[in-house]
C-alpha cells in the first residue's frame, strides 16, 4: 500500500534523515586501509545506541536473505554491490566500499548509501561511483509533482547508459515511511511518462547501483551479499526523498552535496558546502 505523508510528518522524518546522513558522512570520512568491516559495523551500532535510534537491518529477514541480517549496516566491497554482510575482512588499498544504512528515529525511517574508494583510487572506480551519483541526482531532479515513476527511472537509466553501463531491474528504490521497504518499487530504468503519478507526500528511497561490465548479479555464500556475476566492481548511491509542492525534499542530504540536484529542497538546518 502506498501512503502519502503530511507536511508535519515529513518534518518528523527529518531527524532520521539527518542521523543517517551524519553517520554515513562520518563513516566514509574515517574509513581507511586496514580497517575491518566488523569494526565499521560496530561503530555504526555505537552511533545508533548513542542516539536512541533503532536499526532497520539487524532483525531484517526478507525472502531474498538467507537468515536475519544480524548487523546494522551493509558493507559491500569491490564486486559486492548490495546487501554486503559485514564479516572479518580487512580493507586493502584501492578497495571500493559501499555503505548502505537505514535506521528508525521516533518511528520514522531514512535510508541512504554512499560508495568510496579506500586509499588510492583507480580512475575506473571513480567513474563508476560518479555515474551512480549523477544518476541519483537525475532521478531526484525528476521527482516532482505531475511526473510519473517512469520519469525517475528513465532519468537514472539515461545517465547510466550514456556512461556505458547496463542497468539491473531486480533491485531498486522503494517507498519509505514507518518501515524501510514499502510500495512503490522504483526501478533504475524505465519509460518516461509511464507508471505511478507522483503526488505530494510520497516518500521514496532512490538508489542507483551499477556494475562496471555486467548487469548480472549473484548471491554470495553468506546468503546476503549481491555481487557482480563477472567479478567486476560495483557502486551504489542512495537518498531518501519526499515529493513536495516546492520540489524534491532530500531527507538524507549531506553537506558534500552529492546526489542533490539544483531543484532540491534541504531539510531545516542542513546546508550544502560542495559537491
From TrEMBL:
SUPFAM superfamilies xrefs: Creatinase/aminopeptidase
Residues engaged in binding a divalent metal cation 2: 111, 174, 207, 238
Biological source species: Naumannella halotolerans
Cofactor note as given: Binds 2 divalent metal cations per subunit. Has a high-affinity and a low affinity metal-binding site. The true nature of the physiological cofactor is under debate. The enzyme is active with cobalt, zinc, manganese or divalent iron ions. Most likely, methionine aminopeptidases function as mononuclear Fe(2+)-metalloproteases under physiological conditions, and the catalytically relevant metal-binding site has been assigned to the histidine-containing high-affinity site.
GO CC annotation: cytosol
Name of encoding gene: map
Catalyzed reactions: Release of N-terminal amino acids, preferentially methionine, from peptides and arylamides
GO BP annotations, alphabetical order: proteolysis
Identification of the protein by name: Methionine aminopeptidase
